[in-house]
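thread: overnight batch results

M.L. [08:02]
morning all. the overnight job finished for the chain we discussed friday. pasting input first so we're all looking at the same thing
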Amino acid sequence: MTKTFLGYRRDSGPAGVRNWIAVISVMDNCNPVTRTIAQAVAGTIPVTTMFVRGQFGADLDFALDALAGMGRNPNVAGVLLVGLEESSTEAVASRIRPTGKPVEVVHLQPHGTIECIAEGTRRAARMALQASRARRESCPISELTIGVECGGSDTTSGLSCNPAIGRMADRLIEDGGTIIISETSEFIGAEHLFAQRAIDAQVEQAFLTAVRGMEDMAIRRGVNMRDSQPAPDNKRGGLTTVEEKALGAMAKAGSSRLMGVLGYGQAPVRRGLHFMDAPSAAVENLTAFAIAGCQLTCFGTGVGNPIGNMLAPTLKVCGNVNTLKSMRDNIDVDVSAVFESGASIADLGDRLYDYVAEVGSGTSVTSELLNVRETAVSRFERSL
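M.L. [08:03]
and the structure it wrote out:
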C-alpha cells in the first residue's frame, strides 16, 4: 500500500505540507515592515533577507532567484513581496508568477513605513483568508522532497540519528520521493566513498569537483579543513578526525544511488538522492533546501542545535541522552533507544519515516512552536 500524507494541493507542482502566505522582503531595508505585517496577520510567515541593494551581476541574480525560490516552495500558498521600489520587486515577482500562485506587492516608496504596513496588512489578510479555504487532501509520499542535515554532531550522531535519517531517506526514495543532502565541507575525507554511489561518471565527477573545490578554496584562504575540523563542539562531543565526522555525516543519505549534483538552492529535476553544493552553516543550508523546494528537513544533532527554517518544518532527531535531557524542548524525535535498549536503526528509521508523514500531515515541530527559525541566503561578492 502506497504511503500517503495529508497535504495541500497546488495548481501546479507537488503538494505542500503547510499553507503559508509568505511575506518576503526584497531588500534588507524592508525587513522591519515585513516582520510587522507578518506579526499582524495569522497564517503568514516572514521571510527576511540581507543586502540585495548594493549587489550586482551574477550575485544579484542569485539573490533574486533565491527569494523567488522561497516563494515557489510548495508550502507557500501565496506571496506578498515587500520592496523599496518597483523594479527590484518585479524582478522577484516575475520569477514566481509562472507557478500560478497569487503574488501581491507593496512598496515603501513613495508612501513610507506606515502606509506600506497598512496596505501590506490588508493584502496579506485577504490572501490568508483565501488560503484558509484550502483543505488537506491525501497525497502520495512520493511528492515529498526532504533535506537531510546535521549540526552539533558528536559520537552519537554517526551511530544513531544520522543513520536513522538515512533509513528514512532510503524508504522515501523507494517510495518515489526525493532526498537532498548537502554541507559540502562535511564530506572532506570520505568523498571518494560517497562518489562511488554516483549513477554515472558525470555525476561522480561533479560531486568530487564540488568537494575538492571547497577544500581548495579554504586552502587559498589559509585554512586547512583537515586541521580545523571537527569543529570545537564536535570535539567536545568526542569526534576526533575530519574523516570520522564525514563518515557520520554521510550516513544521513542512506544507501541509495546518487542521481544528481545541484548548485546552491537548485531544484532537482528527477527523483531520488541528490547532493547540493552548499555551505555547512545550518541557517544557510536550511534556506538552500527551502529554495530548492524541500517541504521538510530532517536534522540530526548530537550536542544540540535548535534552529529551524521559516518555510520548511525542520525535525530535530537526537540519540544523545544528555542532550535529550538538557535540550528536550528542542528535540522532536528520540532515537537514543539504539544505545539504551538495543533498538535497531531500521526500526528507528521506520518510526522516523512514519513521523515524517505525520509532520507532512500537519503535526507541528518544535522549531515552529517556539518560532526558532531564521533565513539566510548565501552571497558570493562584495556590495557596491
